[in-house]
Design goal:
- With 244 residues, the protein is α+β, with helices and mostly antiparallel strands.
- It has a single domain, classed as Dihydrodipicolinate Reductase, domain 2 (2-Layer Sandwich), CATH 3.30.360.
- Helix content is 23%, strand content 23%.
- The protein has helices spanning 34-50, 180-190, 199-218, 236-243, and strands spanning 5-13, 53-61, 66-68, 78-80, 86-93, 98-104, 115-119, 123-126, 136-139, 147-149, 222-223.
- The strands form 2 sheets. It has a 9-stranded mixed β-sheet with strand order 10-9-8-7-1-6-5-2-11. A two-stranded antiparallel ribbon has the order 3-4.
- Strand 5 (86-93) and strand 6 form a beta hairpin.
- The radius of gyration is 19 Å and the shape is globular.
Length: 244
C-alpha cells in the first residue's frame, strides 16, 4: 500500500528506569544505556520490516552526570552516570532505506510515534516495538487522513494487561506476549522448521547494537559486519498453531 520504503524515524525516549526500578545503576554503567536496553526491540522490528542493515553513524548525549534514586531503599540519594544516556543514530539498510533512530533516557515526555516509515506511495505508523498489538496507521495522500488498522482481534494483539504498572507503555489498553518467540522456536524445532528467532537474526541485531554504540561514541561511521535473511511474516494461521 505504501510502496517501497525509503526512509523513516524510530524513537524510544523516557526519563529513565530509576523512576520505578529500586536498583537502576546497571543501566547507567559503562556499556549500559538505552541502546543495549531497547535496541533489541526496535532493531529487530526494523530488520523484520526492512531486512538487514549495512551501516550506521551517530552521536551521543549525557544529560546528567548523576541521577536520583526515585524508588526503593535509596530513594532520595544519587548515583553516578558512566555511559551516554541518549543516542541519535542513522542506519542504512541493504534495501537502501535510511532510518533515523533516537534512543534516550533523558526525555520526560514527547508526542512522537514510536516508528514511522515513509514509502514511495504513502506512510505507515508502526506501534510500539516493545509491546504487542496496537493499531497500525496508513496514509497514502498528502495531508490526508490516516486509516486505522486495529490488531486487538488478532491472536497476539488481544489486550491482556489488566492493571497499570506505572510504566507508560504497560497500560490496561495494551497487549504483552513476550513468550511467543520462545514458543515459536520450540514449535519449529519440533516440526524441523527454521524458527524466526534465529541465531543469525540475533547476531545481526547485536551487531547493529554494538555498531550503533561505537559509531555514536567515536563519531566514526561503522559498517555492519553481519547479515541475515529478512524473517518471514508470522501469519495468523501459524500463530494459532503455537497457541493450541
Amino acid at each position: 500500500m505504501i510502496g517501497q520504503i525509503k526512509l523513516g524515524n524510530a524513537i524510544f525516549a523516557f526519563p529513565g528506569v530509576e523512576n520505578f526500578h529500586p536498583k537502576p545503576e546497571s543501566w547507567y554503567k559503562k556499556e549500559g544505556g538505552p541502546v543495549i536496553d531497547m535496541g533489541p526491540y526496535f532493531f529487530t522490528t526494523l530488520v523484520n520490516l526492512l531486512g538487514p542493515a549495512k551501516q550506521v553513524q551517530g552521536r551521543t548525549l549525557t544529560a546528567f552526570k548523576r541521577r536520583n534514586y526515585r524508588a526503593g531503599p535509596n530513594k532520595g540519594k544519587t548515583f553516578k552516570v558512566e555511559t551516554p544516556t541518549t543516542y541519535l543514530a542513522t542506519i542504512q539498510f541493504h534495501n537502501e532505506a535510511i532510518i533515523q533512530v533516537t534512543l534516550s533516557f533523558d526525555v520526560i515526555n514527547h508526542q512522537r510515534n514510536h516508528m514511522e516509515l515513509y514509502g514511495t506511495k504513502g506512510s505507515i505508523i508502526v506501534p510500539d516495538p516493545n509491546m504487542f498489538g496496537g493499531s497500525v496507521y496508513i496514509s497514502v495522500t498528502e495531508g490526508g487522513r490516516w486509516g486505522e488498522h486495529k490488531t486487538d482481534k488478532m491472536h497476539l494483539g488481544k489486550i491482556n494487561i489488566t492493571s497499570a504498572s506505572g510504566r507508560s507503555n504497560e497500560s490496561p489498553t495494551n497487549a504483552n506476549y513476550r513468550s511467543v518467540g520462545m514458543s515459536e522456536m520450540l514449535y519449529s524445532i519440533e516440526k524441523k522448521k527454521k524458527h524466526r528467532c534465529s541465531g543469525e537474526l540475533s547476531l545481526h541485531v547485536l551487531d547493529i547494537i554494538e555498531s550503533t554504540m561505537k559509531a555514536a561514541t567515536t563519531g566514526v561511521p561503522q559498517k555492519i559486519k553481519t547479515k541475515c535473511e529478512k524473517p518471514k511474516r508470522f501469519t495468523e494461521e501459524e500463530v494459532k498453531k503455537i497457541l493450541l
